[in-house]
Amino acid sequence: MSQSFEEISAQLKKRHRRSARMKWMTMGALILSAAFLVVFISDMVVRGWPAFQQAQIQVEVSYDEQSQKLPLAAVDEDVRPLISRGFFRPLPRKMEDNPALMGTTQTQWVIADSRVDQYLKGNEDRLRPADKETLENLVEEGRADLKFNTTFFTTGDSKMPEMAGIASAAIGTVMTMLVTMAVCFPIGVMTAVYLEEFAPDNKLTQIIEININNLAAVPSILFGLLGLAIYISFFGVPRSSPLVGGLTLALMTLPVIIISTRAALRSVPDSIRHAAFGVGCSRWQVVRDHVLPVSLPGILTGSIIGLAQAMGETAPLIIVGMVAFIPDASFSITGASTVMPAQIFTWASEPNSAFAEKTAGGILVLLAVLIFLNALAVWLRNKFERRW
Amino acid sequence: MPMNIVFLLFCAVLVVMGGIAFVLSRAKATRVRATGMAMHAQPDQYAWFAALATAGPALLVSALGAFALLLMGAEIPTFYLLAASLVIALIGLIMGLNKVRPEFHARRAIEGVIRKLLAVAAMISILTTLGILLSIISEALRFFQLHSFWDFVTGTTWNPGASFLSAAGRAEGGSAAQFGSIPLFAGTFMITLIAMLVAIPFGLGAAIYMVEFAPMRVRKAAKPVIEVLAGIPTVVYGVFAALTVAPLVVDIAGLFGLDASYSNALAPGLVMGIMIIPFISSLSDDVINSVPNSLREGALALGITKSEMVRNVVVPAAAPGIISASLLAVSRALGETMIVVMAAGMRPNLTANPLEDMTTVTVSIVAALTGDQEFESAQTLSAFALGLVLFIVTLTLNVVSVFMIRRFREKYRVNNL
Amino acid sequence: MNDTTLQNFQTQQDSSTASEEAVRHYSDAPTPDKGQPVTRNESIEENLSVRVRDLSLWYGEHQALNDISIDIFANTVTALIGPSGCGKSTFLRCLNRMNDLISSVRIKGLVEMDGHDVNARGMDEVALRRRVGMVFQKPNPFPKSIYENVAYAPRMHDMVSRKADQDELVERALRDAGLWSEVKDKLHEPGTSLSGGQQQRLCIARAIAVRPDIILMDEPTSALDPISTATIEDLMDKLKKDFTIVTVTHNMQQAARVADYTAFFHLGDMIEYNATKQMFANPHTKKAEDYITGRYG
């Protein structure tokens, strides 16, 4: 009646081959996805690494009457074209602020022009032959070199690539995120507490729940339209400000925080609530003294993930005008401002190719911050996660 | 006096009054209790109630007043408004103190307020949705007053650039603004299609491997990698698409003798697909994981090989969940903005060739709202009309996907007896 | 076991008296040939189906089975009984290598079937499972139609080529499982639309459609109502004509009603293996006796 093992095994050969093929194919899908991440990160590192270096030139700067009037005169005529205009422009102000400098000559490393920078990095050659010769001589004398680019971390945007930095965007991001979290963290946690602990099971509650899930799937750009139509045109919140950007992102992040807080509250076993009720706590006392403290790590983890998500968001901020050109950092929440992803977007659309490395450099900084935040969330989760 | 100083002063007075209410009522309650009378609440609870009664109504009144001032254009001098609020605060203080009586349920009163506050917070999400709907619909309606809805839906030419000319009454032969959205939707669907062709096989494959085949170690290592992929901001993917993938596509197309545009639809499509892989894979992972193990054992016990089991039993069982995940992914791809803004073209182009440049709905929204346009211009308003369509489509996809996942869950609750 | 012996047996149980036959081989000494039942059930002509020798199994560090030796005879029903956690289900799953699905499991010892060690490196577990079918505790029909539930595996195994053959095979399996009359008009409705007892019979039909040699049943009636349980017990009795059945049960009455042989497991050891009548009427070991009389369980 039944076949022997040998017969069956023989029949199975083909099916086993097919089975193995499926295993390899699905494994390939995973490996390719992971390989993409590697390609992507290495692409960004290769592109962005040069942004952390900047060509500098050692020159003799003479602080005198003439250079007060005509800053270009402060350095020797030969090297003048090699040096960034961003160095000359603040010279008179510097002398005014520090009268002791007057009449002295100092040897110092100053920021080189972007063309010099690109030439030394081997990217492109747009220098005039005479300048190139001067530069080669300087390099030979050890007076022109690539050094760590502190400017990138201390200044705002600039039309001169060598003077452009991420600092004002970073400060804009911090201000925007402060507004976002100040609005959406309390509202999100309160909503979640209400839905999990207080809400009666009625139509309204169901509508709120469905609505939150839908809100989580609304394309982010539509939040930008909301911000534009309601905050800016209706309430008159200043355009491009961290206030309007933060409020817009707050609505977008709200569902993330609500959903993760609800999950954290739900993971607190009912036995704890029953025990607290049993010793005569009111519902609010149970929540405040027993449920919230144990679910706090989960709530924080979810909030950090929501924060990281908001920090990387760009589309709604473009709509509310946060892609402004901001050369100077400002801590105001109503002044014009920009954020890191928007800065990356601005640089990416600059035609000058020297900005390409700034773009990738900005991406590396942003990714570093986001990975740090995500790692923090994972660490929090692992450290405080309780199995009931 | 500048506004913000007045405002700060007002807040400070309120805080001080609240503090006074707290201290006084606490002292009173303690005194009452010291006489040996049994009270319904703790002194602290009376104190909190009094503070709440002082500050709460006053804040409410000033907020309402400010709202009326800003929106209704009501002419209430700020000074009177604040003064009225302070008077209300004073009344609240006296009443709060008066309420410190043994038979008063201070705790219950506070908790009632807290409960209402929480409920109000919960309503904000509804308000947000309403806000999105109202803002988009009202602006879209204004757009459809300027341009016919029919032309918007069926027109094949999108040329909003000339709208300011026609507004200025200078619509000369053929240069009138045209708002036919079909090329935009065609571009959006083309890029979404490419993205799905990448994301669904890879995401699903990775999920199947992780759940069904991978050893524990691989699973543990791969999960964070996929989470990192999911956490990369879209603007970063946009840069990658524009700077790395698009030139690559042009080069490769060149090898085959094809002519590709630098803002071809393929590059943003591919990168968007990669962006969505982790989304599909983690949702599918959950769904496949929740297919009951008894089904797997049932199949294996019949002498079915593992891949036959996956293909014929697990995947069909998980199908509603996988479809639901894919619909959510489609909705994401349709609404994705940064990748297409940076890597796809700006030229509305009705074509089936992914190597040509084409533009999408989201790109047009951004383009319409970032120029130096008047808010009232037809081009600006067109962004809201496009936004409305985008909202309706993504909402529908989301609702269908929620419906499918619910059916999936119900099915397995029934099956597990 | 036919109906009359079943009745006889139950009378014996009720009166708690041992029959003459039962005492014939009584001996307190340990089983002379390890693996053989202490008492052979002589109403059946026995061919060896599975021979197990010194089978041990570990879940990680924890040893779940301890040197099990047992002979399972063709065309009989063998019941595995014992308190929960005693290893009876684990043992059952060794017979079709379902334990392979758990990565931390380590197995030592011999499980021999048709002259092959089923744990040998060269043994294809898929081929093994084709010859050793299984029915689970909870009915687990596939999310397919009733017809597809039965036809799926035979089709994958190339047992049928034409549609007519397939229809015939499905009908036969459903008839054998005693389900045909109930479902013949709704073959294309989902298998999950049936009642629990019907679902379990569908799972039996699914298993016998592959024509295995052995059917393993892991507490097949524990999730069912008494009427469905009785139907499935009848079915087991009919099916042993064509198949060897090994069933795990936590219900001693069920073992007494359906099994020809009964093995008693306790904490990973097989304490006693005997003809069912003998086991229940006059157990050899104190532990088995205490369990059967309800001192623990």
Automatic annotation (TrEMBL), chain A:
> From the record, what ranges are coiled-coil?
none
- Entry's SUPFAM superfamilies? MetI-like
| Record carries keyword Transport | yes
List the Pfam families: BPD_transp_1, DUF3333
InterPro entries on file: DUF3333, MetI-like, MetI-like_sf, Phosphate_PstA
The record, for Gene3D superfamilies, names: MetI-like (1.10.3720.10)
Q: Where is the ABC transmembrane type-1 domain?
A: 170-376
Name-wise, this protein is Phosphate transport system permease protein PstA
Q: Which organism is it from?
A: Chromohalobacter sarecensis
Q: Which gene encodes it?
A: pstA
UniProtKB/TrEMBL annotation, chain B:
Could you tell me what this protein does?
Answer: Part of the binding-protein-dependent transport system for phosphate; probably responsible for the translocation of the substrate across the membrane.
**Quick check: keyword Acyltransferase in the entry?**
no
Protein name from the UniProt record: Phosphate transport system permease protein
Q: Where are the transmembrane segments?
A: 6-25, 46-72, 78-97, 117-137, 189-213, 225-250, 262-280, 313-334, 383-405
Instruction: Pinpoint the ABC transmembrane type-1 domain residues.
Output: 185-401
Q: How does it sit in the membrane?
A: Multi-pass membrane protein
Q: Does the keyword Protease apply?
A: no
Its keywords, alphabetically, are:
Cell inner membrane, Cell membrane, Membrane, Phosphate transport, Transmembrane, Transmembrane helix, Transport
Under PANTHER family, the record lists: PHOSPHATE TRANSPORT SYSTEM PERMEASE, PHOSPHATE TRANSPORT SYSTEM PERMEASE PROTEIN
The subcellular localization recorded is: Cell inner membrane; Cell membrane
State the organism named in the record: Chromohalobacter sarecensis
**Principal subcellular localization:** membrane
Task: Give the UniProt family note.
Answer: Belongs to the binding-protein-dependent transport system permease family. CysTW subfamily.
TrEMBL record, chain C:
Using the UniProt annotation, give all residue ranges assigned to the region (Disordered).
1-42
Q: Does the keyword Manganese apply?
A: no
User: GO: which molecular function terms?
Assistant: ATP binding
| Pfam families assigned to the protein according to its UniProt record, in alphabetical order | ABC_tran
Query: Which SMART domains has this protein been placed in?
Result: AAA
Point to the regions of Polar residues compositional bias.
1-19
State the InterPro entries in the record. Answer: AAA+_ATPase, ABC_transporter-like_ATP-bd, ABC_transporter-like_CS, P-loop_NTPase, PstB-like
> Which residue windows are coiled coil?
none
For this UniProt record, the keywords arranged alphabetically read as follows: ATP-binding, Nucleotide-binding, Phosphate transport, Transport
Q: Does the keyword ATP-binding apply?
A: yes
Source taxon at top rank: Bacteria
List, for all copies, the residue spans of the domain called ABC transporter: 50-292
Matching CDD domains: ABC_PstB_phosphate_transporter
Official protein name in the record = Phosphate ABC transporter ATP-binding protein PstB
Provide the gene name from the record. Answer: pstB
